[in-house]
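Module 6 notes. Inverse folding takes a fixed backbone as the condition and produces residue identities as the prediction. Think of it as a translation problem where the source language is geometry and the target language is the twenty amino acids. Below is one complete input and output pair. Work through it position by position during the lab.
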């Protein structure tokens, strides 16, 4: 017996639940970076960001 599991991710964007996959790629990247930063801060890391001039594209 084979069962498929499907995971659907939503994001709370300004109080509205939005399907993550429906966001434009740029917004998905921004949300992922924000989530990463929050997790790293909660783990005790002190995040220091490079200036825009030195940030990779």
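Target side of the pair, the amino acids:
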């Amino acid at each position: 017996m084979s069962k498929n599991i499907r995971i659907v991710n939503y994001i709370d964007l300004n109080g509205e639940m939005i399907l993550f996959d429906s966001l434009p790629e740029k917004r998905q990247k921004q949300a992922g970076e924000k989530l990463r930063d929050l997790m790293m801060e909660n783990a005790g890391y002190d995040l220091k960001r490079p200036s825009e001039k030195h940030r990779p594209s």
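Reference fact for the lab report: The chain has a mean pLDDT of 85.
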